[in-house]
Amino acid sequence: MSSRQVVKRAKYKTTVKDPGTPGVLKLTQDKFVFKPNDPTSKTKLDVEFRFIQGHKVTKEGSKKPAWLNLIHSQGSYIFELETFADLHVCRELVGVALNKQVPGEATKVISEEQLSPAEMALKIKLLQEDSKLQRLHKELVASGKLTESEFWATKKKMLDQDESRKLKQQIGFKNSLIFDTKPMSDGRINQVKFQLTPEIKYQIFALKPAVHQAFLNFVPRKMNEVDFWNKYFKAEYLHSTKNAVAAAAEAAEDEDLAVFLKDDEILEIEARKKVRRVDPTLDMEADQGDDYTHLPDHGIFRDGSKDISEAQNSLYKRTLLQDLNRQGAVVLEGKTLDMEMEHPRTVAEILARRKQECDGVVDEERQNRISKMTLIDDLQAQDNHPYAPLCIKDPRDYFDFQQANAVKTLDDSQTGMEQMKCSLGSEEAYGSLRASISKIKTTGLRDPLFSPDVALKVLNGLTKNISSPKYHLGRSSQGSVLDILPNTTKETLLDHWVCSQELLRHFWSSYPITTQNLVNKTRRLKESISQIYSKLEDIKVSAESDLRHHVSLVVHPMQQALNAALLHYEADIRKRNARGQKPNGYV
Amino acid sequence: MKFEIEDITVYFPYDNIYPEQYSYMVELKRALDAKGHCLLEMPTGTGKTIALLSLITSYVLSKPHSPLKLLYCTRTVHEMEKTLAELRLLHDYQLRHLGPAAKILALGLSSRKNLCVNPRVLAAENRDSVDAGCRKLTASWVRAVAAENPGVPTCEFFEQYERAGSSAVLPPGVYTLQDLRVYGKEKGWCPYYLARHMVQFANVVVYSYQYLLDPKVAGIISKEMQKESVVVFDEAHNIDNVCIEALSVSVRRQTIEGARRNLNRMRQEIDKFKATDAGRLRAEYNRLVEGLALRGDLPATDAWLANPALPDDILKEAVPGNIRRAEHFIHVLRRLVQYLEGRLDTENVEKESPVSFVVSILNHAGIDQKALKFCYDRLHSLMMTLEITDTDEFLHIQTICDFATLVGTYARGFSIIIEPFDERMPHIPDPVLQLCCHDASLAIKPVFERFQSVVITSGTLSPIDLYPRLLNFNPVVSRSFTMSLTRDCICPMVLTRGSDQLPVSTKFDMRSDLGVVRNYGRLLLEMASVVPDGIVCFFVSYSYMDGIVNTWNENGILKEIMQHKLVFIETQDVVETTLALDNYRKACDCGRGAIFFSVARGKVAEGIDFDRHYGRLVIMFGVPFQYTLSKILLARLEYLRDTFQIKEGDFLTFDALRQAAQCVGRVIRSKADYGMMIFADKRYSRHDKRSKLPSWILSHLHDAHLNLSTDMALHIAREFLRKMAQPYDKTGGTGRKTLLSQEDLEKMAVSGLDDMMY
C-alpha cells in the first residue's frame, strides 16, 4: 500500500451508461494518466490531482461493478476496474493523493508557521464564531503589525477551553504498587484476606511479567481465575514470611505455585536486553570481573552482616530492594492502556501484544548521550535563547514610571507647569536631596509644606474633571457621552479602543527586552501605536464643533495610555544606548 | 580558546576556563618539565579531566622532536568512556585550529568481554568464560589443526585480522570501545587484538588501573610501553587499595578441591601426550633447562596471564631440577595442595610471615623456596605444552601457583592469615588461607621507575602528604587546589541529632537503635519533600542499607517517602544496578524526582556522576569505616604502624573520610551546578574527623552548620535552594574572577599571575 504508483486495467466511461473505453489507468501521487488500448482513440487523459475535488467508489458486495468516480468542478471521470481488489488499491492511492493536497494549500496560506490541521481548524472556528475577534485579527495580523503566533499567544484561554475537552490527561501509576496488595488481617480469625480490584490486577501484570505470562497460559485452560489468584496470593504470603526454606518446599510440591515463587526469568531477559542500550557512562556491567574496586578484601565480602545466605535456596529468595527497583521502573514506563477495559483476559492479551512493539534499536542515541553528559556547559559561550531567562526587574524603574503616569493625568489642567523628569540618575537625586537639605537649614521648614497656589491648581483640576460630564449632561443620569455621538464615530472609537488595548498588552508584556526578537517586536508595536494615536487625533479634530469637547473627553484617556507606551519606548532606547551591554542576558 | 603557558600553546576546547584549571595546568607543566612525578588534588567538578588532557596533548604538540605517550588510567569502564568522549571533543578542536598536524591516535583498551564481536564467544556470561571461549578459537594449536581440518571452528574476525597482516591498522582518531567494535565489524577484524596491537603506536591509551598495576596483566599489555610516557592515575584516592589487591591471594577449601581436580586432568593429558607426542614433552624439558624467563616470541593468542611477581623479581635462570619433568611438577603441586589443605584444618586464627611459611613448606612437603618461585611459570609452560584452551576451568590451580610464587618471592610486606571460620557464623566451618599484601608501594614501584612522569590526581587526596609515604615515591610537585566558586553553590552540613534531639550515628553499638533508624528516616522524608529532582543517599554497607530499608518499610516511613519521589537502590547485581541508575536518570529528567540508595564503598560511589539535577542533595548516613574486625585490616594497620609510623586510628579515619568525601563530591560538576551535602553522623562534628575532609568542602562548612538537628537542616536547605534559584553573574560578581575568558588570560600574561586572586 505504500507504493507510489499504481497501474491497473480499466475502462473509462463518459457517463454511467457508457459501455466504456478499455485501456490502462496509471495513478501516481500527483496525477493520473489513462491510455486506451486503441492508439487511435481520442479519449486519452492526463489530469493532475490538484483539479480533483473528491472521489467515490461503489461498495463491494453490491450488484454494481467496481467503479472509481473522480469528481472535478465540471463533472467527473468514471473508471470501471476489473476487480474490487484493484479498486481498493486505486482508492487508497487516490485518498493519499487528495489528502496530500490539503495541507499544501494550508501551508501556502500560512507560510511562516507550521500548524497542525486540528489547531488550524480550531482557530478558524473561533474566528468565525466571534466577528469582533475576526475584525481584530484582520486589522492586526493581515496588516503585519503582529504575527500569527503573537496574536494567539494572548488568546490561549480560548484555545485551551476547547482543547481541555479533547485531551483527557492520563493518570499514571501510583508509587505504592507493592503496598497495595498487602494482606489485611483482623487478628482474631486465623485468616488473611487480600483485596483484589481490576486495577490491582493490572498493576500486578505490569510489575511481574511472569505472572502475566502464567495468567495467559493457565486461565482458563488449566484453572479458573479464582484458583489462579488464590495460588498467587499464597505465594505472596510465603514471600512475606521471608522463609526461603518453606518456599522451596512448597515449590517442590506444587509446580504451578513454583511459577510465582521463582525469580522472574522474563524480567531477567528483559534486563539483559536493556543493559545493552544503557548510557555508557552508567554501564557498570561492563566492569564486572575487570577490576578490584568491586572486591574489597579480595572477594571475601565482610561488612559485619550476620545474614546467613544458603546457596541452594537463593533461587526462592526475593528482597524488598528488588521490588523497589522494579516498581520505580514500572511507574516510569507509565500506563499504556485505558482502564475502561474491564475484562482481565483482554487486558492481559493487549499488554502482551504491546510489549513486543516497544523494542527499538537506539545505538546512536546512546552515543549522543555520552557526549552530552561529558560537556561542561559552564565553560561554553552563552548562546542567545529565544526565551527570556528568569530575572528580577529593578523596582525603581517600576515605581518611577508609575509616578510619571500619575503626573500625566493632570497635564491638560497644568498648562505651563514645569516638566518633571521621569527617571533620575543617582547623582541628580543626591544633588536634589542636598539642595533641599541645605535650603531647609538656611530658611527652616515653612509653615505650609506646599505652596497654596499649587494646591489650588491640583484641586481645581481634579474637581473639573470629575464634574464636567455631569454638568453638561444634566438631563439624564442614564445617559452616556457616547450616545450623543453619531453612530459612525462611535463605532470607530470602540474599534480603536479594542485595537489599542490589544497592542498595549503586547507592548508591556515585551519588557524587559532580552532578545533581538523582542527588540523588533517593540519597534513594530511602537509604530502601530503611533498610527492609532494619529488617528485618534484626527477624530478629535474632525468632530463637529458642538461635539468636539465630548469626543475629546472620550479620546483623552486612550491617548494618555498610548503616550505612556511611546514615552517608555523612547526612554528605554536612550537607556540602552547609554549603558551598553547589560548583565544577565539583557539585549 | 587558545592561550600560552610559558612556552606552550595550550588548546582548550571551551570558550572559558576556570582559574583552577589554569593553575592545574601550570603545576602539571612544571612536573612534565622536571620529568618527575606529581600529586595534584583538584576539587570535584572543576574540569580536571579536560584540563589534564588539554595540557598534555598541547605539550606534545609543542615539542614534536620529543614525543610523549599518554597512558590515562581510570578505575572503571564507564569512566573510560567519559574520558574518551572528552578527548574526542578536544581532538576535534585541535584539528580545527591546527589542521592535519594535530592528528593523533587514541583508543581505549579493555577486556575481551567488552571488545569482542564474535557472537559465539560473547554468549558466555563472565569475563573468564569469554577469555576461554576466545582461546578455543584462536590458540595457535587450534588454528594449526583447523588448517588441515576445515571442520574445526575458528574465529573469522581473528583470521581475517591475521590475513590482513601489517595493513591491519587504525587510522588516526579517537576510538571508544564502541567505535572499536563498530570498526572491527566493518573491516571484519578482531577489535581486541587490533587494539592490543595498536596500543604500541597510539599517542593516547586509556585503560584501567590493573593494566599497569597488576603484574599478571601489566606483564602482557604494558611491558613494551616506552619510557617517555606520562602516566595519569585519575581518581587515584583509592590507589593504595588497588595496589594491595593486585598482590593478594585467597585460598579456600573449594580452591583446594578444584586444584586437585585440575591436577588429575593435567595428569591425564600428560599420559596422553606421552603416548602420542613424546617429542613435545622433551622439547619442553630442554627449554626449561635454559630458563623460563627468556622465552619470547609467543603468539599473542597463546599468552596467558603473566607471572604474579613484579618484573625485577622474576628469576632468569634455569628451572630447578625437581620440577623440570612434567610428572615431577605435578607431584610437587600435589604435595603443595595437600600441605595447604592440612593448614586449613586449624582451630585457631594463625598469622605467619612468608619466611616462616616457606620454612614450614620445606619441612613438611619437601618443596624448597626456589621451586616455589617457579611454580607459576612452570604451570604456564605445562598448560601451553598440553594445549589447554579452556582456561576458565583451571583457575583454581592457577590461584595455588599464584600463591606459591608470591610467597616464595617476597619476604617483606606480606603476611599469611588463616581463619578457621567467619566470625559471623562461628558454628559453620569455612576456612580461608590468605596471602595479604600490606605494602602498596610494591605494585606501583615499577610504574614510578619505568615511566618518566606519573600524575596522581583526584578530588579527595587529603591529607596529601600521606600518599608519598604509602606509595614510596618523591613527587616534584605536590599541590592541593581550593575552589573559587561564583556563588556558594555547595552547602555541607553535619547533622548530629534528629528532631527529637536524640543523637544519630552508625557507630556499631548505636546502629540497630530504633531511634536512630527512625531519625534517619525522618531526615530523608523531610528532605524529599523540600529538595527537587534527585537525592542520593549513601550507606556504610550493603547489609546496613538492606536492614534500614526493610525497617523503614515496616515502620511505614518508606511509603511516605515514596509519595514524594521514586526510589531506586543499588544492589550487588550489576545488571539491576545499571538499570536502576538508568531509570533514576529518567525519573529526574521527566521531573518525577527520585531517590537513589547506594553504598559508600560500592560501585556507584566510584565513577557515577550525579551532577546537575541528578543530585541536588547527598546524604551520607554514617561514617564509612572499614570492617574493623577484619584480620586482614588489623594486619595492615600493624604494618603501617611499624613501617610508616601511621597510627591505626589515623589511618582508619583517613580511609573513612576519603570515602565520604568521594560520595558527596558526586553532585558538583561545574560552578553553575549546585548541591547540598549532609553528613549524618554525630562523629563528623569532631575535629579529628572533620579536618580530614578536603579543603574545598571544609572552606564551605560553616561553624553554624556543624551540630544540626533535622529541623535546622531543613531550614538551611530551604534557604539554600531559594538562594540558588536567583540569577547571578557567572563571571564572578564580587571582584574575584571565577571564570576566565580569552581576554582575561591575555591580561594575566602581561601583568603576571599575581592578578589571579581566588
TrEMBL record, chain A:
InterPro entries referenced in this protein's UniProt entry, alphabetically: BSD_dom, BSD_dom_sf, Tfb1/GTF2H1
Annotated PROSITE patterns: BSD
Membrane-spanning residues: none
Entry-linked SMART domains: BSD (SM00751)
GO cellular component, one term: transcription factor TFIIH core complex
Domain of life: Eukaryota
Domain named BSD: residues: 105-163, 188-240
PANTHER family membership: TRANSCRIPTION INITIATION FACTOR IIH-RELATED
Name of protein: BSD domain-containing protein
TrEMBL record, chain B:
Alphabetized InterPro entries for the sequence: ATP-dep_Helicase_C, DinG/Rad3-like, DNA/RNA_helicase_DEAH_CS, HBB, Helic_SF1/SF2_ATP-bd_DinG/Rad3, Helicase-like_DEXD_c2, P-loop_NTPase, RAD3-like_helicase_DEAD
Pfam families the record matches: DEAD_2, HBB, Helicase_C_2
Cofactor: [4Fe-4S] cluster
Superkingdom, taxonomy of origin: Eukaryota
Recorded catalytic activity of this chain's protein: ATP + H2O = ADP + phosphate + H(+)
One GO term describing the cellular component: nucleus
Coiled-coil regions listed in the entry: none
Gene3D superfamilies: P-loop containing nucleotide triphosphate hydrolases
GO biological process: nucleotide-excision repair; positive regulation of mitotic recombination; transcription by RNA polymerase II
SUPFAM superfamilies membership: P-loop containing nucleoside triphosphate hydrolases (SSF52540)
EC number: 5.6.2.3
Subcellular localization: Nucleus
Helicase ATP-binding domain: residues covered: 7-285
UniProt keyword annotations, A-Z: 4Fe-4S, ATP-binding, DNA damage, DNA repair, DNA-binding, Helicase, Hydrolase, Iron, Iron-sulfur, Isomerase, Metal-binding, Nucleotide-binding, Nucleus
GO molecular function: 4 iron, 4 sulfur cluster binding; 5'-3' DNA helicase activity; ATP binding; damaged DNA binding; DNA helicase activity; hydrolase activity, acting on acid anhydrides, in phosphorus-containing anhydrides; metal ion binding
Recorded family membership: Belongs to the helicase family. RAD3/XPD subfamily.
Protein name in the entry: DNA 5'-3' helicase
Organism the protein comes from: Glycine max (Soybean)
Gene: LOC100806384
